[in-house]
Amino acid sequence: MLWVAFAFGSAFFAGITSILAKIGIRDVDSTLATALRTVVILLFSWLMVFVVSCGDCQMTKRYGFVYVDADDEGNGTYQRYRKDSFYWYQKVIETNGEVL
Q1: Contacts of 53 (CB under 8 A, 6+ apart)
Q2: Are the CB atoms for 21 and 34 separated by under 8 Å?
Q3: What is the spatial distance between Cα 39 and Cα 46, in angstroms, rounded to a whole number?
Q4: Bridge partners of residue 82, in order along the sequence
Q5: Are 59 and 70 in contact (CB under 8 A)?
Q6: pLDDT value at residue 85
Q7: 3-state SS assignment for residue 39
Q8: What was the pLDDT predicted at 65?
Q9: What are the φ/ψ torsions at residue 66 (nearest 5 degrees)?
């Protein structure tokens, strides 16, 4: 039933984003305003992923672009390494989406 909370959270943050689009960003280029709203949405989206994955401290479920050297019992160096998905996404951004 956790999905219900996330559904309401998603609707709430979509509404907040819409309100910010109407009143919070004046005299700003429309492209920049869209980029700012997108960043806000992405931050909240990843926040939800981290909340779910850290809720029971499971390290076997790996999300994101960075690998953390740790297991479910807390063993490991906790060093961070970039995953292959990081380099793939970096290439997509550099080529403006031409390489997918």
Answers
A1: 61, 63
A2: no
A3: 11
A4: 66
A5: yes
A6: 87
A7: helix
A8: 83
A9: -125, 130
Q: How many CA atoms lie within 13 A of 62 on its CB side?
A: 14
The alpha helices in the chain, defined as continuous H runs, are 2-19, 30-54, 84-94
| Residue 56: per-residue pLDDT | 58
Residue 53 CA to residue 47 CA, distance in Å, equals 10
CA dist., res. 47 & res. 36, Å (int): 17
Amino acid at 21: A
Tokens of 7: 């559904």
**67-90 tens-digit pLDDT:** 888 877 778 888 888 988 889 989
Residue 70 in tokens = 């740790």
Distance CA 94, CA 72 (A): 35
